[in-house]
């Protein structure tokens, strides 16, 4: 019987790093072929097509590279011989890349994003085991129609939910709702299904979108600076259920008076924003003045979503629907 074929697109990150003795720290050095040589028995699971897309750390990822990566993945997915696509990536921005791809690629075949927390010069390098688990996921029929998945530490998470929760731990990528499943003895064991998926059909991205985190006794300087420097969209990481100080509220009023789209999410790890509080700066006042409530999204992903939405349309009501209606597709 023919083995499934998986395309692995290597972009760099810790999974591709070794410690440079002169620098005294880890840098990207390994090609896709070199990384694969450390994964035992992978040839028994699938035929592998290697694509050395980039050799960069996670913080060096850009919107231009993401658009290029998206087009490459789409081309590979349209190849009838390809069962699934895997992208290796630096973990610092892995969740953002995964969500960007999840919003912009609509296909039944699985796309898996994988990385490593330890470089190949360290004891306990997890890159090989994570990549093996990603291959097991990519070839599983149970991974189809689930959008982009993130696989590390044998846990399979949805790109729309997962976030990096620890700077060091191997189980750093977590979802507030738990993983979709796990890899156990080379098999994808599904625990739950995804309730909904959203999609933004666009190849344009509005770069002038800022993310501002609120803190105690914060004023409106950052918001006004953002607006005055040309922002067309701002995501506010508010407190609790989506509340800000009266001073920040004035900055939001200023932004909206200039036609800037404002989305509010919570700075908390989990939970959604809602119109629970009616005091000055509370979620109810924000919603009543036209601020978009970002549901249970965290700031970095909400920023990407707003960038894509504004790349597609300037219609504030359509953008509101994308954030506030679960099944809305822009």
Overview in brief:
It is built from 10 helices and 16 strands. With 330 residues, the protein is of the alpha/beta class.
Describe the structure in your own words:
The chain is α/β, with parallel strands linked by helices and 330 residues long. Helix content is 29%, strand content 23%. Helix 4 runs parallel beside helix 9 and helix 6 runs parallel beside helix 7. It is globular.
* Mean pLDDT figure: 96
Helix and strand content put the structural class at alpha/beta
**Element pattern in H and E:** EEEHHEHEHEHEEEEEEEHEHEHEHH
What is the global morphology? globular
Rg: 21 Å
* Distinct helical segment count: 10
Number of strands: 16
Oligomer: single chain
Strand line-up in the sheet with most strands: 4-1-5-6-7-8-11-12
Q: What fraction of the residues are assigned to beta strands by DSSP?
A: 15-25%
Helix residue percentage: 25-40%
Distance between the termini: 41 Å
Uncertain segments are: none
| Major pleated sheet | 8 strands, mixed
């Amino acid at each position: 019987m023919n083995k499934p074929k998986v395309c692995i697109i290597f972009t760099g990150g810790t999974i591709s790093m070794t410690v440079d003795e002169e620098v005294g720290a880890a840098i990207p050095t390994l090609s896709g072929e070199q990384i694969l040589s450390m994964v035992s028995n992978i040839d028994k699971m699938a035929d592998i097509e290697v694509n050395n897309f980039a050799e960069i750390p996670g913080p060096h990822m850009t919107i231009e590279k993401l658009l290029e990566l998206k087009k490459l993945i789409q081309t590979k997915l349209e190849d009838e011989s390809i069962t699934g696509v895997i992208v290796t990536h630096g973990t610092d921005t892995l969740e953002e890349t995964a969500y960007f791809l999840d919003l912009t690629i609509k296909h039944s075949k699985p796309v898996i994003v994988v990385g490593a927390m330890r470089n190949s010069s360290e004891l306990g390098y997890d890159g090989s085991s994570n990549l093996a688990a990603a291959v097991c996921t990519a070839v599983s029929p149970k991974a189809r129609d689930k959008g982009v998945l993130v696989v590390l530490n044998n846990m399979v998470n949805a790109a729309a939910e997962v976030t990096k929760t620890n700077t060091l731990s191997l189980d750093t990528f977590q979802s507030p709702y738990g993983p979709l499943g796990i890899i156990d003895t080379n098999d994808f064991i599904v625990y739950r299904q995804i309730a909904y998926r959203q999609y933004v059909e666009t190849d344009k991205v509005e770069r002038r979108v800022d993310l501002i985190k609120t803190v105690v006794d914060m004023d409106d300087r950052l918001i006004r600076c953002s607006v005055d420097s040309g922002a067309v969209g701002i995501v506010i990481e508010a407190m609790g259920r989506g509340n800000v100080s009266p001073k920040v509220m004035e900055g939001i009023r200023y932004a909206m008076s200039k036609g800037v789209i404002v989305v509010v999410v919570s700075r908390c790890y989990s939970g959604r924003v809602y119109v629970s509080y009616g005091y000055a700066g509370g979620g109810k006042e924000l919603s009543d003045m036209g601020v978009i409530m970002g549901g249970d999204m965290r700031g970095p992903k909400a920023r990407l979503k707003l960038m894509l939405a504004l790349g597609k349309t300037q219609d504030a009501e359509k953008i509101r629907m994308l954030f506030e209606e679960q099944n809305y597709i822009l």
